[in-house]
């Protein structure tokens, strides 16, 4: 890339430090207060390191060490690193869901970058919602930024079995509920399923979003799959520190990288990996921040032409460290080069095509040949119909094939509490052919659209050997989950979507190959039900949750705040 290099006088931070006035005297003197000399801090690019570490961020336990490596890289390249902690979104511990707070992290990231004397940013995240949250804020702030992923855990272990977090939890819990697994065995799995720092090592949301970030051009090549505890991960962190300094001199900002082409590349990577359904919601939000037109149907268009070639759980057999050892995302993308916009710019200053050139597949059991894919079509399909006029999604590679075309009787649950209370009630007759429907679990109904979409199967059916049923909701599900789960139904029930009108004993027709979801109730009856429908009471009347309820869009638009979707450029802060 032939871009003129900027001079020190062009640095944004110099507005704080360079003038010979009283305010800049205060800025410089406080640097001295913190122990920095003029040679260390002045005239260098100031690099913000946005760190989402906390004592309850289970995926980020290694970040106190990694931030030192990032700082080392910044110093090596002639920059001045400053660590700025931002809210940590723990997928496991935050309730009702970390998704409720994704937009809060995005808002915080945007504002801390805007209000501080910084020229560029390294974004440290990994646990599911930290990735889109940091990216959304950085895109809007539009300073040079590079993403440093947490990396996946190493494989878990129980007895002679190799465990994948999330996916194997659901599998063994079903066996536990069916009476096929002892408490002792269950405790053994608990101790062995998450043994190192890092994110889930299946193709859950964390690994998916890391791969999507690499494919879209905001991460160093090959970084998305490096296991958290590998020495290569620390070297990558230092490389991020070095590269961001160069990006500042090149003025290489997200607005120069992100385009319709780069989003197509990200979606192609997602589909080839059979990635988490959550990636759709997050990519829609990122596109909204970037001002790039992106509709839900674009995901299905790309899915139809993209084979699933990554044989990773829950849609396959292997884990993220196997994907890394097999060549990582560059090998996956090189195998699909003709489906990519190879000329799209990336944080390296080179094109995506240059980044992946010559990448080799080292294990074709893990990264399949295109002639022998896991699935001929991509990992996520978009469905429409009178039950989801604005769309819904399903991951067919993780579903029982016999259920992909299915008509069944609806069993409706008003909330997760209702589901928990009645699912195993002997008085509620449920068969394996029925369709479980959960509503009021969407962006506003829950609120926050939690990962409640992998509805549990009734215990008596588990005991009879049933392991999958058609399940429909306006919720999300973990990317580590599996089953015939129709998700993200839009509009959601809480705003009067058709899901609010379904009654137990209605018939629902699912046709995944035909991309349709139909409530088999005539229009006159639906009109009668709609006239009688009453909206639920808001889940909050103050604070951040009230802001979320007032401003959040539906799933088909990314669940972002309306007032943060792309508008005019924000003004730089005034310094007096």
Please give the structural blueprint.
Layout: H1 14-17, H2 22-33, H3 38-41, E1 46-51, H4 63-76, E2 80-85, H5 102-115, E3 120-125, H6 130-141, E4 145-149, E5 156-158, E6 161-163, H7 167-177, H8 183-192, H9 205-216, H10 231-250, H11 254-257, H12 260-272, H13 278-290, H14 296-305, H15 320-325, H16 328-335, H17 352-356, E7 381-385, E8 388-394, E9 405-413, H18 416-422, E10 435-438, H19 459-463, E11 470-473, E12 485-486, E13 507-511, E14 516-519, H20 523-532, H21 543-551
Parallel strand pairs: 1-2, 1-3, 3-4, 9-10, 10-11, 11-12
Antiparallel strand pairs: 5-6, 7-8, 9-13, 13-14
Helix pairs in contact: 4-10, 5-6, 6-13, 9-12, 12-13, 12-14
Short description:
This protein is α/β, with parallel strands linked by helices. 35% of the residues lie in helices and 12% in strands. The strands form four sheets. Strands 12-11-10-9-13-14 form a six-stranded mixed β-sheet.
Total of DSSP H or I helical runs spanning 4+ residues: 21
- The first-to-last residue Cα distance is 37 Å
Low-confidence stretches: none
Number of domains: 3
General description of the model:
With 576 residues, the protein is of the alpha/beta class. It folds into 3 domains: 45-154 and 196-356, no CATH class; 157-192, no CATH class; 381-532, IlvD/EDD C-terminal domain-like (Glucose Oxidase, domain 1), CATH 3.50.30. The chain is 35% helix and 12% strand. The chain has 21 helices and 14 strands. A 6-stranded mixed β-sheet has the order 12-11-10-9-13-14. Strands 2-1-3-4 form a 4-stranded parallel β-sheet, sandwiched between helices. Helix 6 links the parallel strand 3 and strand 4 (145-149). The protein is globular, with a radius of gyration of 24 Å. The protein starts with 13 loop residues before the first helix and ends in a 25-residue tail after the last helix. 55% of the residues are buried. The model has no long low-confidence stretch (mean pLDDT 95).
